[in-house]
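Meet our chain:
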Amino acid sequence: MRLVIVTGMSGAGKSTALRVLEDIGYFCVDNLPAMLVPKLGELLAGPNTTIQKIALGMDVRSGKSFQELNRSIGKLKEMEIPFEILFLDASDSVLIKRYKETRRSHPLAADGRIDQGIDQERRELDGLAAQADYTINTSRLLVRELKEELTRIFVEDKEYKNLYVTVLSFGFKYGIPSDADLIFDVRFLPNPYYVEELRPMTGNDRDVREYVMQNEKAGIFMDKLTDLISFLIPNYISEGKTQLVIGIGCTGGKHRSVTLANALYEELSRESVYYGIKIEHRDIGRDAAERAK
């Protein structure tokens, strides 16, 4: 029997996670009163149960449910009933944006501001988050990517990668990514924009990549950057960091930053045994879109 308690910040994707788990064969119960969790665990652990996989969604809608949930978790441990905690999280800015887009109010905000409700919820969930077996930060995850991560954990039983790394190229003239943890400026390299035949291309094209990487400084930069990131990642993991966004910027986010971001992604992918990794090119088509207006 596999019992998974799905919880986390409101707006971080708990309902989506429950739907995914249901699709992969879990019996899902959302917002079950916390006091009933030990009794349900006892029934499921019995010899006559036919349910082998169950996921319980727990959130702040039940008032004092998290205080009761902590007591119920203690009872599950006393009864030696195995369980796992899946904690969904996201940055405050992303949570606020999601609430504004859906025009919903935060369950703890009452008549106050959304950010105040989020702050209160984080304080209430602090102890539960520390007990989580799996913490997934959904700030930059698509639904498809969340499904892949849950499938890897709960179907394929692969080793859980607590840290998710995003390598992000961008253009400084369109602003620095607000959620980036590390920013690297590659505007010191020769700009393919000033080579007429390369201007319409991007860093995903071989000619641009070769032009950028043939510069000796690009190779030195990549060696030093890869060495730095490879040093930082294990330390971030040991400190419990779950999301790392590495921003690489040039002027327009089309040539140099894309090239170097691709190169870093390729290097880190070879080492990504203990972390997940993805790449995004935020502004790669921005120039063309701006000209079309």
Summary: The longest helix spans residues 216-238. The beta strands are 2-8, 27-30, 53-57, 84-89, 134-137, 163-171, 182-185, 243-250, 275-281.
